[in-house]
Amino acid sequence: MHKLSLLSLVAGLSLVTQPLVAETLKTEKATLDMQTLSSGLNHPWAMQFLPDGSLLVTERAGYMRYISKTGEKSEAITGLPAVHAKGQGGLLGLVLDPDFAKNSTIYFSFSEPREGGVNATAVASATLDGQTLKNVKVIFRQAEAIDSNYHYGGRLAFTPAGELFITMGDRGSRRDDAQKLSGHFGKIVKVNKDGSPAAGNPFANQSDAKADIWSYGHRNLQGAAIHPQTGALWTHEHGPQGGDEINIATAGKNYGWPVITYGEEYGGGVIGVKSKAGLEQPLHYWVPSIAPSGMSFYTGTQINGWQNNLLVGSLKFGQLVRLELTGDKVSHEERIRIGARIRDVQAGPDGAVYLLTDEDDGKLLRLSPQ
Q: Considering 2, 43, 151, 218, which one is annotated as catalytic?
């Protein structure tokens, strides 16, 4: 089983360390130090903190590795399945089993190559055993596979009850299928740990619908986080040219894509309308698009004034977006310039905020009070 101490991984770590140089970030609520904790990552996509405070990180190119609390990187973990690492595809979302301390199980999403040159979003479980993944099992496969390198979704989130949400995109060319319950394009699904549909899913008794679908009418969901007080699933998705959205993903609801949107075709051109009866309006949206990425709630105490705020990375503008909430409404937005494409955002167990930058030389950044 996976040893929770990094002592067992010393042989696999790159022990070359660099002095941490802090850059000062002045924000509305606090002055922060931004440190580059680690670098040399190949388009990192997701991260999860392990019980010992180290990080497990996926890289879109098809690698997974550890990063210690002081920034040392391990060699790539072996045992991953084949990954279609082209365009927006590759090794994507990552989450720990709620019982990770007992079973060392992780779940990860990836673009899975299939016969005939097509690919689709898939999710696998595995046992983390040092530098090796064991007992790898694909628990979920998107029903449709096509020849596309776009809009995989891929964020994962466990409910307080131990059920798994999986977000998926419309694959770029199949936008109209986001409205069809017979397939997985543009959907959120809710499954058990073995990939079977979770009990109580809204369309389980509908013969022309997939039993694992939770909500539909989504474009490309790349942010997902469970609200720390309510347990609700909060998501965001990319709009086309404008119209990125934050939603509370509720069972059975239709979030409208491509019937309603605040965006437009690339280069201009109307898509649908902005509202329609029976379709959900976004909780918050951005025009122009910020290209949102990872998302998490800040529940730490170190950064005063950030408690229970929603943090969203921006790929397009190289920002961390901080959203203050009043109930289920966004009451204030602050944009903090980071200067690099932000792919994931996680609040650490130490109360700091950690960011992954989406670059050939991707970095792990740490934001903490000055």
A: 151
